[in-house]
Amino acid sequence: MHPCSCDTFVALPPSTEGQRIIFGKNSDRPCDEVQEVLYFPAADYEPGAKCTYIQIEQVAHTYAIVLSRPAWLWGAEMGANEHQVCLGNEAVWGRESPDGKEALLGMDLVRLALERADTAEKCVDVLAELLEKYGQGGACLEEQCDFTYNNSFLMSDRKEAWVMETSGKYWAAERIEGGYRNISNEYNITTKIDREHPDLRKYAQRKNWWNGKSQFNFAAVYSYKNTSRIEASGSRYCEGKKLLQKSHGHITAQTMMDILRDKDSGVNMEGMFMTTGSMVSVVLVDPALPGVHYFTATPDPERCVFKPFVFVENMRVQLKETASPTYGPEDPVKKKPRFQSKPDRKHSLFAKHEVAVAIIETHKLECERMKQMEEILYCGVEQPETLLDLFPSAVRDEMELYSDGFEHMLSKPSLYRVEVKSARRVSP
């Protein structure tokens, strides 16, 4: 099976316009899979966290998070937390594959790191600890199959980004402090390794992958000798890198959305595996200003609206329209043998979007929201409570569009805008 999975991007100053970090990710999954967007407030817990397949030790406190995830999973493909840490994962294949036993999925690791880390580098610490203690493995599709993989991760915060690539419990990590970076479905950390598993090189020597004398190149050592299996992903990675390079110095949220929508490059994937959810985040270097996290919650970003979400202190809002039905202990993913059936997981927005196959004018709605977000990114927010209904109202506007048609939306412009009272800066 050829690797069919995602692309994740990050751009930092001086590649971006203004002092901003722009993060973006497409989640490429089976074409019939539903992706939901959910918010989980910060919380204090008793011991014991149930992930997709296994239960692990819980931490005493978790941060508030917003996630885009396949509806059958506990974990997530991508998301952000209240500290403006953004994180996404990619499937990677190398010399070794997970052994098939049920452990932590890469998506579980994404959620756990966002719950527990307030910086990008701390994500590396959390992921390394979890890999060492619990490992990674288990079916990555909602069906009876042996589709498993190792994971790479791209994470960012207000000042930097990190790439972390894994093979079983072994890993290497690289810091990115400026410019841009993308990851796809191949190892691409080479000789610049800023952190690593303490036995990474010894293990490679024991396996006769590395002679211990030549310069250590993680991708060369841990990848397949025959790279034909990752040829397709390599092409997509290169095309994604070209798209970033094309806008170097002028990358904005709109730039990132355009990249995620690009079908010629393969970044916006079509077919049996397709882009089922997308995310773009704008995080200011200035800690006094909020970050804005845009999600689609629907497939094919070319036909989707990116809807904004902003973290607000003591937020308790539920994103009901992008939450899929739950089946409790009767869910086929929780019963053994697993995946004996496939329930309907369509959330309200997905169902509406599905029947409105291609309304290109929806991008006008998105542009109006983005103008509004630019105001708060520049000025901050005078009354944060005005943002509590931001994402849900954007979802309702989109659903209204699908129900009544775009002309109806234009006749009711008040539907476009949540009244956000932004702070006003005296100086530019």
From TrEMBL:
What's the name of the protein? Secernin 3
List the lineage, top down.
Answer: Eukaryota, Metazoa, Chordata, Craniata, Vertebrata
Q: Name one Pfam family in it.
A: Peptidase_C69
The family note in this entry says:
Belongs to the peptidase C69 family. Secernin subfamily.
Q: Which PANTHER family match?
A: SECERNIN (PTHR12994), SECERNIN-3 (PTHR12994:SF18)
Q: Which Gene3D superfamilies match?
A: Penicillin V Acylase, Chain A
Gene source species: Hippocampus comes (Tiger tail seahorse)
Query: Which GO MF terms are attached to this record?
Result: cysteine-type exopeptidase activity; dipeptidase activity
Q: Which GO terms describe its biological process?
A: proteolysis
